[in-house]
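Narrative summary of target 7.
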Amino acid sequence: MNKISYIIPCYRSSKTIVSVVNEINSIMVGHSDYEYEVILINDGSPDNTFDIISELCHTHNNIIGINMAKNFGQHAALMAGFRYATGDIEVCLDDDGQTPANEVFKLIDELQAGADVVYAAYSHKKHSFSRNLGSKLNSRMAEILLDKPKDLYISSYFAAKKFIIDEVIKYEHSYPYVIGLLLRTTNNIRSVEVNHRERSIGTSGYTMRKLISLWVNGFTAFSVKPLRIATYMGILSALIGFVYSIWAVINKLTNPDAPMGWTSTIIILLVIGGMILFVLGLIGEYIGRIYISMNNAPQYVIRQIIEHKE
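Modeled conformation, tokenized:
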């Protein structure tokens, strides 16, 4: 018998997580050929989310509750859930009910058809404008920097086979980025269309600042292309400066009364100086992450685990 592990990072979800778990239980009633477990990871929520998770753990014998010591982020919470999951298929979804658990077998059927990883794709996302814009930018940057196929839709709702996740959890450094880990593990990744619901309660925990931090994390941890782009920008800037210098000399020789071009000189200095600072900052970001990894900064710290067995 196959077993499904549902892995759900939770943050400020005390009012929504019960309905998500109930929906999972309802859909699994019609699939008695599958065993399943639900792993709920409280990622340092400031509300009573873990109290609700504790109640669920004590009333269901297939729910595991993990309480993080502080907020480590969604991807660190996923890594914690992966390490405690025992299913042959592992499904990740959100805690707010916007990712439809009742359509999970669209993803699972695609896995059974031969895919290693299947993402849920949304034709009409119900997120805010800024969140949708951030998702589009993330997808485009993943194409450029992580070699994501252009037609592959990436979302927080996905299913993967156990052997893929076993490879993913070998990554033990700080700043995990699950999308990057999956893309470097297999190219047999597909997406299937599912519905996306309106958020019934609260607002998204992903601010634009957190989204930008997540992008920087993923792209500096799993790609050196930003450094290469910076190198190309430096070469282009040098070429422009060289061409401009030749033009300035020729212009002065052919027209002795021509002005020296103070304004253009200042503009060039500002542009080149800005590029130098950008490249230095980028290099510093890489070096900083190397430093943090060498100091064995933890991916996450677990304060408590609750597991109720019959």
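The two ends are 19 Å apart (CA to CA).
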